[in-house]
Design brief:
mainly alpha, 2 strands, 119 residues, 69% helix, 4 helices
Length: 119
């Protein structure tokens, strides 16, 4: 069941950018998780601004492409604490794993074929 519209997905994307941008300070992340979080905030902002859905500033890539990007990013976030050797930092690990699960869930429930008009 695809219950998240393209417009709602856009709002959630901007919220995701804010979460990644604030996490290093609010969670007192160490160097590697902090750099990763800031990098993800920047990358997610760029993708959000150029995707073809109502909240995008420039429609340079189709919305469905953003969906495929998120299908890669979600699982990568779950693996990141282990691949980047910060799995012993419980708060940082839990943050990235939770964000990965959330991104996967949002992608699963998003209607990427939905009406992208501003409504």
């Amino acid at each position: 069941m695809k219950i998240i519209s393209p417009r709602s997905h856009g709002y959630l994307d901007f919220l995701t950018v804010v979460i990644f941008a604030l996490a290093p300070t609010l969670l007192d992340l160490s160097k590697v998780p902090a750099i990763l979080s800031y990098g993800l905030a920047a990358a997610h902002l760029v993708v959000t601004l150029i995707s073809g859905f109502p909240t995008a500033a420039f429609k340079l890539i189709p919305f469905i492409v953003q969906g495929w990007i998120e299908r890669v990013v979600g699982p990568a976030l779950i693996i990141a604490p282990f691949a980047l050797s910060f799995s012993d930092e419980i708060l940082a690990s839990n943050f990235f794993i939770a964000m990965g699960v959330i991104i996967i869930a949002v992608g699963f429930f998003t209607n990427y074929q939905g009406d992208n008009r501003s409504y």
